[in-house]
Amino acid sequence: MTPAIELTNVTKIYRRYTGRQFSTLKSALLQRSLMRDLQPSETFPALTDVSFTVPKGSTYGVIGRNGSGKSTALKLVAGITKPTGGVVRVDGRISALIELGAGFHPEISGRENVFINGIMLGLTKRQIQERFDEIVEFAELREFIDAPVKTYSSGMYMRLGFAVAIHVDPDVLLVDEVLAVGDEGFTHKCLDKFSEFRRRGKTILLVTHSLNLVERFCDEALWLDAGRAQTHGDPKRVVGAYLTAVEQGEEQLMVETTARAVESAAPPGADVPQPQDLTTNMFQATEGRWGSREIEITDVVLRDAAGQPSHVFHSGEPLSIVLRLRAKQPTDDVVFGIGVFNAEGVCCYGTNTFIEEMNPAALNGDAEATFAIDALDLVEGTYKLDAAVHKRDGYPYDYHRLLYTFRVKSRTHDVGIYRPRHKWTFSSNVQFLQRDDRSGS
Amino acid sequence: MRSNLENLIRYRGLIASLVARELKARYRGSVLGFAWSLINPLLLLIIYSFVFTTIMPNETEGVKPYAVFMFCGILPWNWFATSLSDAAGSLIAGGNLIKKVLFPAEVLPLVSVLANMVHFFLALPILIAFLLVSGRYPDPLDLVWFPIAVLVQLVFSSALALMLAALTVHFRDIRDILANVLMLWFFSTPIIYPWFQANVQRFRWLFNLNPFTHLAVSYQEILFFNGPLGHWKWLLALGAFSIVLFLACYWLFDRLRDSFAEVV
Fold first, then answer.
1. How far apart are the first and last CA of chain B?
2. What gap in Å lies between CA A275 and CA A281, rounded to an integer?
3. Sheet of A94-97, strands arranged across
4. What is the CATH number of domain A270-409?
5. CA atoms within 13 A on the CB side of B207
6. Contact between chains at B101 and A120 (C-beta distance less than 8 A)
7. In which residue ranges of chain A is CATH 2.70.50.60 found?
8. Mutate which of A81, A129, A146 to test chain B, going by most B C-beta atoms within 10 A?
9. Could you give the number of structural domains in chain B?
10. Could you say which of B29, B259, B261 has the minimum Cβ distance to residue A107?
11. Residues 6+ apart with CB under 8 A from A162
12. B100 and A80: CB-CB below 8 Å?
């Protein structure tokens, strides 16, 4: 069986035309560079040597970061742009949900726009006539269909666009991140429509940032990064690989953020006034570092379950915070403290050795203090860390305020600050579908 | 090239509905609606009549009433000039379609030409009424030439429309240049002065190089002057030239087509 979509070594190079603003017709004529100016002078590869095959009747997901070439791939399949190299082959009639309602004219009614839009998408007048009621019903615009489109809300506009495009009844449906067009109810309707398409053996190519959707809906997935195909195949595996890469990117970002914060905080010996009232200061999420430095925190390291330094953690996994210290003179008056703050500046947790009634007998020279959390039960988000050494009366040796950033990732998008360990139980008459149940609507 | 021309025929439904949309949208929301297509030329004609009979009477032999004579050339010129300026911006205005939908770009400049042709047709009854009132009865045999003249102008305008639309995508200042070129072109065409004037005849070869001269003179002979169309050879020659020009411009348009989705 011939595949519905086949890309073979496809490369797309976008051209940049240098000196665009100076390249006027006049200067082009004067310098006789008309044809030269129409030639590309600088190029930008949007896709490099990408090959993939979508079998008929399957649903194929394309994921990747912004600017990774996903939409370019879709436009190539739709035929809106031509590949610079390689071959794009599509079998069957295409409908592209790339920009909904592109070509709607604001001054004329929804009814007239449905007809013109339908003709643009390749339907005949008769076909539109036949499907008109269904389209209007789907868009939920019965009362407004004769009003000019300019009076529509953006949701109504998108719904009408979606309704027309989906009723073209294509063999191949291209979808570019358009599921966010309506309210919850409409999104479900769209997903139902996709399910119906799948059942009828149509091919769907889906570009989305919703990894959940890819895992639930797609038979296969492709991950594009910087215009190159990273991996393709089983959606779960591809999404997993993508998430790992995203984490690595975030890790890098966290490392940089932390390094910058530590560097810009006061260097040792600088005369930084200690905040007058620590309790009020506690609620001001400003980074900083202060203290006498008789005991210095030389480094703060976050370690994951395997003991590796990391900045990205999964909710529920262990986390160890290691403070490396140097005491310039022996002392027994020392308290170690830790505080975790979320992005809104709310203190999620704070403690110190004094509160926990630990009395150090002596501290001298280089030392390490480790604060180990068995299970990091925080919700997804970015968190900042306070680390401090001070006297029992609060006199600071070295106070690191919000200098360390880490990220907690979670597959569950629950809310709040803290995730208690929990379990749901139900009486026998409450039942749930499997998460990957595809026939479910 | 051939498949392109075949496609054009395939798109006729799309072109027709876009032209209809253009016309509908133009007057949507105005009280008088389509009547404006009649009122605009009517007012213009009344003003010309007043100026050229009362304020600055033009007594040139054979071109009375002068305003009606001028109008025979001004109406087709308006169609021509507005077509080109609309077409020049058509791809940019329709950028959304070109970038986001698989859409045949050549449809847009052609729709500009055709929508303005409909406006031209709508203004014709006013012209005919004035011709009859002033006792100028067009020769029925001459009128056979009228659709031919319209067709020649359609092909000629479409050719330039395609070229301007494609180039304006890359050189935005064409739109400004065009406005000035059209102004100059208007005055160098025998529209507000008769072509048989001595001063025009002296530079006849120069006027003959101007394609619109032949259209304007043809329209004037068909509609305004008595006697058979003396200019038919020129009209047909322009027709042949227009077809060649159209093919050349379409070829250029096709060459630049792939850049539209990226540059618009």
1. 23
2. 7
3. A94-97, A172-176, A203-207, A59-63, A220-225, A228-233
4. 2.70.50.60
5. 24
6. yes
7. 270-409
8. A81
9. 1
10. B29
11. A97, A100, A138, A139, A178, A181, A182, A190
12. yes
ipTM of the predicted assembly exceeds 0.90: no
- pLDDT number for residue A35: 56
* Shortest distance, CA B171 to any CA of chain A (angstroms): 6
Please name the member of A24, A79, A108 whose beta carbon is closest to the beta carbon of B171.
A24
Tens digit of pLDDT for each residue in B1-15? 777 788 788 888 889
CB A383 within 8 A of CB A339: no
CATH superfamily of A3-244: P-loop containing nucleotide triphosphate hydrolases (3.40.50.300)
A80 chain-B contacts, CB cut-off 8 A: 98-102, 261
What's the domain range around B6? 2-263
Residue B75 parent element (H or E):
helix B66-93
CB contact under 8 A, B25 and A108: yes
Sequence-separated contacts (24+) of A226-234 with Cβ below 8 Å: A226/A67, A226/A68, A226/A69, A227/A12, A227/A45, A227/A46, A227/A47, A227/A48, A227/A50, A227/A68, A227/A69, A227/A72, A228/A47, A228/A48, A228/A49, A228/A50, A228/A69, A229/A49, A229/A50, A229/A51, A229/A52, A230/A64, A232/A52
To the nearest whole Å, the CA of B239 is away from the closest chain A CA by 29
pLDDT at res. B19: 92
Cβ pair B261:A112 closer than 8 A: no
A367 touches chain B (CB under 8 A): no
When CB atoms are compared, the residue of B18, B24, B102 closest to A79 is: B102
Q: What is the pLDDT of residues B72-131, one digit of tens each?
A: 999 999 999 999 999 999 999 888 888 877 788 899 999 999 999 999 998 899 899 989
Q: Write out the residue limits of the CATH 3.40.50.300 domain(s) in chain A.
A: 3-244
